[in-house]
Design brief:
This is Helix-turn-helix domain-containing protein. By secondary structure, the chain is α+β, with helices and mostly antiparallel strands. The chain has 3 helices and 3 strands; from the N terminus they run βααββα.
């Protein structure tokens, strides 16, 4: 019997955010596609801190739980 694999953003280091590259790798889409989805609001949790774009782990995990 096959079991479903649950995607998770759990971090053993306790960081509250992910880089855009980490999000792209986690969900399996291109870096440019990830930026586009973050900028459009399709992927929630975008934070702009100075010149960096980061993603809230909690918001991303909630979204992943919702979209399956």
């Amino acid at each position: 019997m096959a079991t479903a694999t649950r995607r998770t953003t759990a971090d053993p280091d306790g960081r509250l955010t992910l880089t855009v590259r980490e999000v792209a790798e986690l969900i399996g889409i291109s870096l440019s596609g990830t930026y586009a989805a973050l900028n459009s609001g399709e992927i929630p949790g975008r934070l702009r801190i100075g010149g960096r774009v980061l993603v809230s782990r909690a918001a991303l995990q909630h979204w992943l739980d919702q979209v399956g």
